């Protein structure tokens, strides 16, 4: 309860924030001649029902379809750049590591799980490499911050990203297309068709996208390019409304990725390690000298079925899915060749996974006084993964770990919002989860051992159970203003070692980790709907942390090795000061530190900052729409985002740190009269900022990769 009281001490500050703009609203109403348009309402499903963002007692960053299109939000890394509290680590880009409010995971083994989950139309993408989608024809993207364990289930201890695609529309034929050309020989095309039939009782929606560009980095040894792209994706959705109160939706989607790279570099030397003499520093972002170009190949597809039936007292929903993943990546880890870094480190992963889920839930009808949802959920996955490491220390050697994991997960959940008056509501939710894991790992296939002390073939299994919950209160003191306090708890399942050094380590699994968050927030609309200002403060207690460490024999193990406290503040402002002008600003402060963490005897990281978590992140997005005399308009828009220093290692020592970054994106968009077509001139990373997107110390050097360089192009959009 001490933490809860501490969080509530922020309430007076929030009330002050609420009062200041209220006074402004009375003193600075816009003149009639310069009356600005209202901020458009954003509808989200953060509580598994459609609600206005301003009525939801959850910190959510949401991107609507227009913003997704014009800001060129295509994948998760684009979302992360514009979202305080969300971090993205692209190593490699086809196997991302995502963290929300300081909580993430580096464990990508077959028996591990992410700490921040991604959902595609409410379907959990259970493997990091399965996070593959194209944001064309997306209705919105929601980033839910903090534990979401009650409504969204397993492994949302840090938060959740929910991608919502456009559904077929029954009342009109529609079509749209997009073509892009840019530097690095960028060529992109995308299109969508929506076709109703059966007298408006059914509709088919088909969308597809193709995106290519040449490599950002030249390999001076092979003559090839790396960090290129060739991505193709598609989605086909069929909607049937056979009668009043019955709705069916079936969807199939798929993504095919082909790329070379990533481009690796020796960024720093660990001169205290004698093996540092093997390496030569190379910080040239435009070039690499790897002995191979490598490849990042991914094929993933899935099917989804949803059925809704409106009963007299509730809506009964079935949601089922099946997804398949075939993933292969190989790369030169040190960016060298036999005449440059002759030791040579190479690596890769091969993975096939399939997973399925089923959910049955009852939800209260829209407009009912008491809003509630209750349901049952199952998730199953089967993953086969191979982890390969090659090192040339006198003679070429290859070490291979072969992993196989099966998971069966079950859950029951319920959540309710009860109004006590027109202004006050109580919120409560509870979920019980049970995971059963079977795991086999061996290192018998390779011709040598680097990370292991012995050959082994081990099979283990375990079960993990947890109760997660949330409880809170909503208070609306006046119209258009919401105050809320919420406590929530999430958990990430336990698991087994990815690349253990011995049979004993392979049998030694790790237990679940938990996060309990106490949050106080305010959401307000001022100046006749032209100003939205939201604020939240939170304290999160993070226990039984699953932390990875590299042992002296180079094996990597995961332990429940610590506790941490994460304190933060986030603010969001959207303002239309006068006709045509708009400013969106968001800022996040995060103080994420270990309370207890001793990864090995004699080492104490208490007081250190959690890796990959900046203290400050600021996003500014001003824009101006200029109406033209002959009709149509031109939009001028800029996106600026700043992140302060981060550490890429929990030791907060050595070279694994990334200085503060500043990124600038901009676009000029002309929309023709009638709003049927538009042309956009855009640029990303216009200052050509250079920063490290991944880095890790290994065998006496700090190896890593860089962010994409400046890119620009022109996009033509047409819609019926």
- How many strands? 41
Shape: globular
Radius of gyration: 26 Å
Q: Quote the average pLDDT.
A: 89
- SSE class: mainly beta
Number of discrete helical segments: 5
> Helicity, in percent?
under 10%
Kindly report how far apart the N and C termini lie. 57 Å
**Which regions contain 5 or more consecutive residues with pLDDT less than 50?**
1-34
What does the main sheet amount to? Answer: 22 strands, antiparallel, barrel
Q: Work out the strand percent.
A: over 45%
Question: Can you tell me about this structure?
Answer:
The chain has 5 helices and 41 strands. With 720 residues, the protein is mainly beta. It has a 22-stranded antiparallel β-barrel. A hairpin with a 6-residue loop joins β21 (345-364) and β22. The longest helix is centred in the N-terminal third of the chain and has 17 residues, at 11-27. The radius of gyration is 26 Å and the shape is globular. The model is unreliable at 1-34 (pLDDT under 50).
